[in-house]
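Progress note, sequence design subtask.
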C-alpha cells in the first residue's frame, strides 16, 4: 500500500492541511483545484482512510489526517536535506535566499552580516524583507520566506523554531538629558511620568512592554504607538519622548551622541530571538549559512554590550 504513495500526493496533502481548503492549496501549489482534489481522493483510496472532513467553510483534518501530517512533514524535510547534501558535496553554494528581518536586525546587523556572507558566497542571491514580527511570522507560515528572526510568539504547527539568543532592553532618550549615558535606570523609582513610544498591538514586544510597565508600576504620562523604527529614533532624538528598544538595535547609539541608552534594571527586561522556518521545508545550504552569518553578528553585538 505504502509503495503506491506518490510524492506529489504528499505535497498536496500537506498544502491542504496547512491552508485549510482545496482552493487555497491549489493556488499555493500552482495546480488546478480539480486536479488537486483528485490526488487527495486517490491518496485516501490508497490508504483506505478519510483524511479530511469536507465542510462548507473548508476542510478539517481527521485524527488520521493529523497523524499523517506529522509523518509527511518529516518526509518532505528529509527529501530537502538529501537534495541539500548533494548540492553541498558538489562544492557549489548557489541559489536564492529570501529572509525576513525586523528593524532590530536591519539597522545594526544586516550590513556586516551581508558583506561577510557575500564575500564568502558570491553566487548566492539574497533578498531581505523588513517587517515586524507578526507579518514575518505570517510570511514564513505561507512559505514566502526561507526563514525569519523574531521574538517568541504563537507560531502554530506550520512553523518550526529555535532559540538564537537573549538580548536586554534599554530606555532610549535624547542626548542632552542630565542622566549619564549607559547608566542603569529603575523606571519604578522615577518621580516624573514618561512619554513613551511603543510598537502597535500586533507587535510581539508590545505585550511584554505593557506587562513590564504594569508590573513595575511605571508612571506613564502619554503613549504614542509607532510601527516606524527610524521615525521613532528620530522623534526621541528631537524631543522628550522616550522608547524601549533592544540592545542589538541600539548598537549604533552606544557612543551617546544622538541618543542616550539606559539599561532597564530591577527588574531587567529581556528579549529572546527565535529563528523560524516552514515546518515542511528544510533550509537550503545557502539559507543556513546566511542564518549563521546573522547569528554570529547578533551574538557579537550582545557580547559587546554585556
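Output:
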Amino acid at each position: 500500500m505504502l509503495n503506491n504513495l506518490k510524492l506529489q500526493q504528499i505535497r498536496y496533502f500537506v498544502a491542504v492541511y496547512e491552508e485549510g481548503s482545496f482552493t487555497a492549496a491549489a493556488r499555493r501549489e500552482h495546480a488546478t483545484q480539480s486536479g488537486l482534489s483528485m490526488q487527495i481522493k486517490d491518496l485516501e483510496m490508497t490508504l483506505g482512510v478519510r483524511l479530511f472532513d469536507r465542510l462548507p467553510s473548508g476542510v478539517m483534518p481527521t485524527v488520521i489526517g493529523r497523524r499523517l501530517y506529522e509523518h509527511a512533514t518529516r518526509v518532505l524535510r528529509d527529501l530537502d536535506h538529501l537534495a541539500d547534501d548533494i548540492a553541498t558535496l558538489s562544492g557549489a553554494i548557489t541559489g536564492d535566499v529570501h529572509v525576513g528581518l525586523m528593524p532590530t536586525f536591519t539597522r545594526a546587523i544586516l550590513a556586516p552580516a551581508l558583506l561577510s556572507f557575500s564575500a564568502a558566497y558570491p553566487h548566492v542571491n539574497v533578498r531581505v524583507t523588513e517587517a515586524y514580527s507578526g507579518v514575518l511570522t505570517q510570511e514564513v507560515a505561507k512559505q514566502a520566506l526561507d526563514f525569519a528572526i523574531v521574538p517568541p510568539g504563537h507560531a502554530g504547527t506550520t512553523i518550526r523554531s529555535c532559540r538564537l539568543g537573549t538580548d536586554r532592553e534599554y530606555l532610549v532618550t535624547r542626548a542632552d538629558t542630565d542622566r549619564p549615558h549607559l547608566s542603569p535606570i529603575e523606571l519604578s523609582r522615577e518621580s516624573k511620568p514618561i512619554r513613551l513610544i511603543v510598537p502597535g498591538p500586533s507587535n510581539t514586544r508590545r505585550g511584554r512592554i505593557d506587562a513590564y510597565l504594569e508590573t513595575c508600576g511605571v508612571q506613564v504620562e502619554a503613549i504614542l504607538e509607532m510601527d516606524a523604527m527610524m521615525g521613532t529614533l528620530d522623534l526621541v532624538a528631537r524631543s522628550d519622548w522616550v522608547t524601549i528598544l533592544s540592545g542589538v538595535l541600539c548598537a549604533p547609539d552606544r557612543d551617546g551622541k544622538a541618543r542616550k541608552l539606559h539599561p532597564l534594571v530591577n527588574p531587567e527586561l529581556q528579549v529572546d530571538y527565535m529563528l523560524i522556518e516552514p515546518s515542511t521545508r528544510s533550509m537550503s545550504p545557502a539559507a543556513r549559512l546566511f542564518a549563521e552569518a546573522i547569528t554570529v553578528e547578533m551574538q557579537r553585538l550582545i557580547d559587546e554590550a554585556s
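The first helix runs from residue 7 to 19. Work on this subtask will continue into the next period as scheduled.
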